[in-house]
Amino acid sequence: MKKISSIIALVTLIISTDMTNAQSQYHKKAEQNPFTLVYDGAIIKNEKGKVNIHPVKYNLNGIEIAANVYTPADYDASKKYPAVAVAHPNGGIKEQTAGLYAQRLAEAGYITIAADAAYQGASGGEPRHTDKPFFRVEDIHGMADYISQYPGVDANRLGVLGICGGGGYTLKAAQSDKRFKAVATLSMFNSGKVRRNGFQNSQLNTIQERIKQASDARAQEAAGGEILFSGVASITDEEIAKTPTDLYREGYEYYYRTHAHPNSTFLYITSSLMELMTWDATDEIELIDQPLLMMAGSKADTKYMTDEAFPKAINAKNKELYLIEGGTHIQTYWKPEYVNQAVKKLTEFLGKNL
After folding, report:
1. What distance in Å separates the CA atoms of residue 210 and residue 155, rounded to the nearest whole number?
2. For residues 202 and 265, what is the distance between their CA atoms, to the nearest angstrom?
3. Residue 119: left if φ>0, alpha if ψ -120 to 50, beta else—which one?
């Protein structure tokens, strides 16, 4: 029988969770910011009359969730504001691109929340790095629970933005959560489809083999054995340079170099693939009847997932597909010229529909 610890994805390695000493040098941004935010233009202190950040914690199904709430300039709790929940990418956390978009939307007048997924980041949950669709969707429902009760929030004007994997989970959450009056995705990544078929459908011939490896990993866990992990815990500059796809090459640069954070990781437990590989963001997507905006970089190698999902949302109102001209998947996370395009479109969309 093949070893359970064999490679299970073309660009995925099963390796130790220990971060190398060399990795720590890339966490300087997080260490220098009092809120450990790593994006450019991040808040460094709360000031009267400006956008402020409020670290919060709340309970979701017995797990403590860590989140950041951003309030607009001159926030007055006695007034009513529209709000937006922001779901982070796979491997991401609230201090990276989710926080950037939450801050930018707060600058536009929204109260926003970006939370770490359960089992990930600064949130609780064991075993760490569990990445199951049900939990990720529940995280989005949980953000709606919390922000709807936040002082000053108009719960009747609540929107949601999902980025990358958070975008796929947002499509699923919005199917049943009608508290979300407007739904937006950025660089949507259909985690189930990619874990099942491989990125760009590159692993169609090994689906059953990889499902077997995942179920074997669960059997090992159930027997009290070692928990196995898939993903990448650390990577060299040479390995990054040799990575053939923009998504993963630029993703490694983003998560392990330019926007590294000690709470962020590309790891997930191998047994999670049992749920991931049998899940799809577009299943029952016709249940979305809210206004829908799907945004993707015009040069993104993940754009095919947005292209596949958008026409299936047949009951979405006022739906729009918007291309961020010139951007790749990861560039929409942080490059000002692409972030500005996305934020401009988002504020137009939310302004019309909230």
Report:
1. 43
2. 23
3. left
Residue 111: the pLDDT is 98
User: What is the DSSP annotation of 210-223?
Assistant: HHHHHHHHHHHHHT
Query: What digits encode the pLDDT tens for the residues 260-311?
Result: 999 998 889 999 999 999 999 999 999 999 999 999 999 999 999 999 999 9
pTM score > 0.85 for this model?
A: yes
Length, in residues, of the chain: 354
Instruction: Give whole-number Cα distances, 211 to 199, 205, 220, 266, in Å.
Output: 16, 12, 14, 20
Give the phi and the psi of residue 180 in degrees, each rounded to 5.
Answer: -80, 110
* Sheet strand arrangement including 81-87: 52-60, 63-71, 111-115, 81-87, 153-163, 180-186, 291-297, 317-324
For the chain, the domains span 21-353
Secondary element (H or E) of residue 101: helix 97-107
Burial of residue 275 (number of CB atoms within 10 Å: 0-12, 13-18, 19+)? middle
pLDDT band at 4 (very low <50, low <70, confident <90, very high): very low
pLDDT in tens, 93-116: 999 999 999 999 999 999 999 999
Could you tell me which CATH class the domain 21-353 is placed in? Answer: alpha beta
Q: How far apart are the first and last CA of the chain?
A: 55
Unique residue bearing structure tokens 């790593």: 38
Give me the DSSP letters along 196-243: HH-GGGTTGGGHHHHHHHHHHHHHHHHTT-PPPEES-S---HHHHHH-
Using CA atoms, how far apart are residues 108 and 299, in angstroms rounded to an integer?
A: 27
- Which residue, among 253, 257, 246, has the nearest Cα to 296 in the 3D structure? 246
